[in-house]
Design brief:
single chain, mainly beta, 4 helices, 50% strand, elongated, disordered N terminus
Length: 390
């Protein structure tokens, strides 16, 4: 046999070898039932334990069907494998009775894991009961986050659907190198506190090519984040993409190096927002780029609110201590649902500096929208209203 004939056979051999090395752990083999009624929490945790103990790459497989999960906590502290793939063809269901989980914080949680990838599947938080309770102003539990990652590295979430969570849909906290791609988040516009993706105390997080519709922020960025990349997002309904709220604590980490580009906002409360409490704080926001963004009937397309204080409670009548600098808005077009489309309401004690508005063209009722700037400094080009604002 010629060397050219041997060459492809060699690669087929390597491919088969890699498949053999990647052991598959089917949750049904550990007792999981796809009938939407039987609690499969222990079965999922058992499959995780087996994959975790593997000395090579491992795959946890969830076949088609609906699996009831009361709650599940996956820890990587004792894992030998640093390449665990969770391939989901089915739906994971939270209990419909919100009292079953109560105030436990998270429904499905990963902590201190490394090299975990989740592909496909639906995480259904069944939060309608809790939303109804909250919207009727009764004494209700706070609720739980559907899918949370804490203190973890090298995470991939691809093609996942998260829907109807009691509170946040996806949480990334204290993590490094996280890639979310092709994610779909879905909850009604009147569902309270159902942020799509919340990131805090993390670095190297990217959120790409995703559709998010919720009753709160599509994406919210908390304290302590750096090097975030958000691109190719369709947001609506919801409250937009928000940096904040920041500045609740007097000693708080800042947010820096954030890029938000190629985003469409449809019928949202806000577009791109920076929000800080009117309280003393050591926090900051710097080096942020909002670029190539389309607004469609958005109430507050561009907003910096440094006087955030709901119901005028818990604010000591002082300006926000969060320092905002070097924020650029570039190529932002579309329609505003209110006359003031650009509102920069910065801190009286720490004015915004280095604000740049370039090629921002927003209309209101077939006319040009207006801009309002307080305690903001920088430059604007292209439109008289914006130039006068800064």
């Amino acid at each position: 046999m010629s060397p050219l004939a041997i060459f492809p056979l060699f690669f087929i051999f390597l491919f088969k070898l890699s498949l053999a090395a990647n052991t598959i752990y089917n949750v049904q083999n550990y007792g999981a039932k796809s009938n939407a009624k039987t609690d499969s929490s222990k079965a999922f945790l058992s499959a995780w334990g087996a994959a975790c103990a593997s000395t090579s790459a491992a795959t946890i497989y969830v076949p088609r069907g609906s699996y009831l999960i009361r709650k599940a906590y996956f820890t990587g502290q004792t894992c030998k494998s640093n390449a665990i793939t969770i391939h989901i063809d089915g739906t994971l269901l939270a209990p419909s009775d919100y009292n079953v989980i109560g105030n436990d914080g998270n429904w499905i949680m990963f902590e201190k894991v490394n090299g975990v990838s989740i592909y496909g599947g639906t995480f259904d938080g069944q939060g309608v009961g809790l939303w109804t309770c909250k919207n009727s102003h009764k004494n209700c539990p706070k609720g739980t986050t559907a899918l949370a990652f804490y203190n973890s590295n090298n995470i991939v979430i691809n093609g996942v659907t998260a829907q109807n969570s009691q509170m946040f849909h996806i949480l990334v906290d204290g993590c490094h190198n996280v890639k979310l791609q092709g994610v779909k988040v879905s909850a009604p516009g009147n569902s309270p506190n159902t942020d799509g993706i919340h990131v805090q105390s993390s670095s190297g997080v990217s959120i790409m090519n995703s559709h998010i519709g919720t009753g709160d922020d599509c994406i919210s960025i908390g304290p302590g984040n750096s090097n975030l990349w958000i691109e190719g997002i369709a947001c609506g309904p919801g409250h937009g993409i928000s940096i904040g709220s920041l500045g609740w604590e007097s000693q708080e980490q800042g947010v820096q190096n954030v890029t938000v580009k190629t985003v469409t906002f449809t019928g949202t409360q806000n577009g791109v927002r920076v929000k800080t409490w009117a309280r003393p704080s050591s926090g900051f926001v710097r080096n942020v780029l909002f670029q190539h963004i389309v607004m469609s009937n958005v109430q507050n397309p561009i907003i910096i609110d440094q006087n955030y204080c709901p119901n005028h409670e818990s604010c000591p009548h002082q300006g926000s201590g969060v320092k905002i600098s070097d924020v650029t808005y570039q190529d932002i077009h579309g329609t505003s649902a209110t006359e003031v489309a650009v509102k920069l309401d910065c801190s009286k004690t720490n004015p915004c500096i280095g604000i740049t508005l370039e090629d921002v063209n927003l209309s209101y009722k077939n006319g040009r929208a207006e801009a309002s700037c307080v305690n903001a400094g920088g430059r604007a080009s292209g439109f008289k209203e914006l130039t006068g604002c800064l």
